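Note to self: keep these together.
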Amino acid sequence: MMTPLFRTVLIIVSLGTCILINRKIRKARIRIEESVFWILLSLMFVIFAVWPGVADLMARLLGIYSTANFLFLFIIFILLLKLFQMSFRIGALEEKLKTLVQELALKEQSERLKNHSDKEAESPRERFGLSEIRATNPRTDKGGVGFPREQYGLSEIRATNPRSDKGGTLEDDGHV
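Structure:
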């Protein structure tokens, strides 16, 4: 049997939960699917408080000595079910997130490769804004334009930038 104080507290907490959930729905801070669970749970506790015979009968059928113990056990059981459902939902969301991150990474890599191949299609002169690239081979004393120094055994590569009217020699790291 529930005491009047316990019944009053149960009604106040249940109605407070319903009011809080309704405010959250109006402010669009909770999804309606989630709010239905909480509203139904609150209404069930109002029913147990208004008609304590229902809770007493369920407690006796389950072999629980006290109605209050039944209510606490019922609350724990319902919340464990909700936790189990939320665990499944979180797992599904994590899988979706992982898939989206992988797709985004592949898309970004594809764009980078496309941009990189576009830059490779440009000549070094266009890429660096140079008017002339001249390379000299000390073995043949012949110069050429745009040859990699290491590949062709060149001693010097001179580059001229028309914007600054300065020339320079490419160092070992390949920068002017």
